[in-house]
Amino acid sequence: MFKPYFTFEKIEGYLNDNIDTFIYGRTTEDRDRFLYESFLENKSIKQYQFIIEDDIIYFIYNQEKIIIDDVIRDLPQLLDDYSIAGCNLLLDITSIDHKILFILIKLLLTKFQPSYLFAGYTLPLEYKRDDEYNYELSFDAQNFANFPGYTTRLDSVSEKIIAVILGYEGGRVNSLVESITKCTTILPIISFPGVNSNAKSIAFEKNIGDLESHNSLGEFYYSSIYHPFDIIEILNEINNCYHNKKYQLIVAPLGARTQSLGTAIFATYNRVTPLFDFPSEKELRSSGVQSCFISHLSHLLKTI
Amino acid sequence: MPSPINPFKAFRTEELGLKSWKYYIKNKSFEGLLGEHPLIYEGGRGSGKTMFFTCNSWYPQMKMFAQEHQGAIVEYFSKQNIIGFYYVIDHTFIPALTGARVTKEDWLKIFDTYINLSIAKEIALFLQFLRTQSLINESKIIQILSIPLFPPDTEVKEGIAIQDLEAFIAQIDNALDNIEFFTNNNIPIEKLLLYGPGRLVKKLIDILSQIELFENTQFHVLIDEFETLNAEQQVRINTLIKGSKYNLIYNIAVKTKGQKTLATSAESEQIEYPDDYTYYNPEIKEGEERNYNQLLADIVRVRLENHFGDKLEPKYYDIKYYLGEYRFSDELSELEKQVEKFDLLRDEVSRLIEQKVGANDNLKEMIQILTNCDLLNLRLHKSLLLRKTLRVHDIYDAYIEWDKANFKKPTRYHKWLNPAKLNIIFLLCKEFRTTKKYYGFNTYAQLSHGVIRSFLELCQNAFDIAIANGFDFIKPRQLSIDEQHTAAIDTSRLNIKALSKKHPKGKLILNFITNLGDIFYQVLTNPNNTLSDVDISQFWIRGTEKSKEVEDIIDLALMHDAIIQETPTKVDRSSASVEIEDFRINHIFSPYFKISYRKSYKIPLNTGEISEMIKETSKVKRSVLKRLKVISDDLPEQAQIDF
User: How many CB pairs under 8 A join A and B?
Assistant: First the structure.
């Protein structure tokens, strides 16, 4: 598979010269602000922001704050109003909330296609944690549910295959499996290298209990955390294995945003069920900036 | 790494899949639950709701019937007049039925249609099965096939003309796809053909009832995981419960406190017990422990039979063989080996006697008799001596009487000793710095206490550990005390850990339980414990007014199975009889907190204390313990509990 991704430093100049639209999310952490600040001085780039405050989604442009009541109805209208189709777009996925990221990707890939589409992901210097193995990045997770725009019912007949992209927090896999009937197979995916050199073993360590209790310590898949292409490839491989009415493939992107991006891209073009528990992310869960990677997604734009 | 031969690996009904009926035990208390009245089956996680509902749906019922009657499915209908259709709420999908693009009322209509179609599909699959058994022919159900599922003039993928059941099922799927499409796209609601609550299902059942085979059949819709619906959606199902009659009955399985409302769509009408429904809760009532233990043994026997066929010797199908029984004497004999501490306790009891009686002719003899006894008695004597109302003579006389009676008849001393035995073991373990062990069939049964899944989890972990230690069913052996105890601690810890991930407010409930467990431990192992009130694992709420916050905490703790509500006790307060709500901590948490798994004594908590207990760090523990006179001004040695 073609995997065009670059370090930010390598294509910073190109982006400054060529992109005309930048979409980003919250700006509370150093890494959230990295790309935003990099393009702040470039007045030829329009900057659009999506944030969620008290469960209300806002779209902000030129200090004008627009409430999005219903993402299915309002987001296409907004993308139309602001002429996103045909622009040269960089999307900072680091800080865009999952609820918006997924539907935005779907709309960008299929209905409001930019001429060029890039996605940036900034890794922090470190995550806040209690000790080497104890990350508490989110709180108050909800019950697992569909992403807006990707709603797929779980039918009562087929066996469920769950591809779960593991994060640094334990317990979520257990909640996921407990919420699904007829779950037969769990396929864990670990992304690395991540911020910490131990990332692989931390993800393993934090989830081993859940996986073991559901007999899922067999095959592991590994993907790069820097870009979404590995995940697309892995999901493709899994989907080919279980491409049969007997099975329903569920994907739970509990890891980094690049992995969520890969899941959203794959789910846009394939009948899979992405599920998520929509936890609230802690304020200031990381500090500093370690690196930033830009994925070029233009070759994935297709009209359905 | 545990070997894959552990027969306890799968314990959720969902994991057992289509074979779940092979693991189903017909519990006596289930008899007659499905009848003319709708059933509301309320219970905690793992209390058998899903097993009961799935195994009373048509497919497992026929499988069971065929097994009992050697393959005669055709006779099923002449002998059974109940057919169940199981439907579990698709709670990952249902939350998507929201958004500002249509009104709330329209979303509820879409919800009604979705439920209608989902149950209709189950009915269609049932008809398909009957056709394969040549029990019906398609011409008899032609009316069903002509029920419209789309608005007029809609282009439907498979074409409008439906000629057989397969096409009908495909059309149901298309109609469901249509709803799915509606949730993902901004399209007009007119694209959907909407059915009112239960209307499509009623149409199907009415047509079915005209078939001779089903003339006297009661059709039961069995809706599982009702708690995942929001209040408005529950109202729609409540309306179906209220309207259940004759041949179509709606039943629900719901987690404790998961029923958010009793309202129906008709204004001012509610579903009312017992007029509108039968209520069932699998909580073990006083005196039912033996039945529960037998149920557990039967469940394991069936599980082992399914796993090993008849390859094992008969005794190896009995879980009691592997777990054995907990005996006080085993733990006591271990404790008695600590001679120095035993002697120190003797000295302490001697001092207490001396202090209490002063100079007395009998002093020496009383010390001699009340200290030269078993460790269990000795520790009891210490607690009895701490009681202000008891004289040493009373204790001495009672002990002599008990000793002479040779434990054969009930005596006053017997009444002190018997209920306090387990509590004494907890006290001694703390004072002798020994780990209290959780093992034995009865202990495991009490730790699960009505939650069958907890018992199976305990067994799974115990066998995992034993298998890692070389255990094999080819040459079975009893599981060691340490294997069982480690499994109990692991299971307990995992259940505690899982609490924090529960939605909503799992973290707060964890804080509440952590504080509660810690308080219980302090009370249970208080060195000045007089053993008047033993085995504390319960609480009741003081004051008649519960704040909204406390009510929410209690309801959520009940819903997450962190606490369990006990049958209310009536307390006579200033001549007015008041009903008190009693709660106990889920006993599966006991090993984690090192507390008792028996329910006997309860402590009172104020509403203010409860709302403080949801905080991670709070001084409320100290004030509760002070109020209970467990501590005075300075908190003594704290229980070391790692979270």
Answer: 100
- A37-88 pLDDT tens trace: 999 999 999 999 999 998 899 999 998 999 999 999 999 999 999 999 999 9
Which of B14, B93, B501 lies closest to A146 in CB terms?
B93
Residues 6+ apart with CB under 8 A from B258: B42, B226, B227, B228, B559
* CA distance to partner chain A, nearest, from residue B74 (Å): 24
Q: What is the pTM of this model?
A: 0.85
Residues of A in contact with B12 (CB under 8 A): 178
Q: Work out the percent of chain B whose per-residue pLDDT is above 70.
A: 91
Based on C-alpha coordinates, what's the Rg of chain A?
19
Contacts of B497 in chain A (CB under 8 A): 170-171
In angstroms, the separation between the Cα of residue A291 and the nearest Cα of chain B is 31
Torsion, Cα of A174, A176, A178, A184 (10° steps): -100
A22 close to A116: Cβ distance less than 8 angstroms? no
Residue B166: list chain A partners with CB under 8 A: none
Largest CA distance in chain B: 107
Give the closest-approach CA distance of B99 to chain A in angstroms.
5
Q: Report pLDDT for A254.
A: 93
Q: What is the pLDDT of residues A131-144, one digit of tens each?
A: 555 656 666 678 89
Angle formed at CA B570 by CA B565 and CA B571, multiple of 5 degrees? 120
| pLDDT at B462 (0 to 100) | 96
Give CA separation, A78 vs A48, B261, B463, in Å. Answer: 11, 39, 58
**What confidence tier does B585 reach under pLDDT thresholds 50, 70, 90?**
very high
Where does A121-228 have alpha helices with state H?
Answer: 172-178, 199-213
CB spacing of B122 vs A154 below 8 angstroms = no
The segment with the largest mean pLDDT, out of A131-145, A158-172, A256-270, is: A256-270
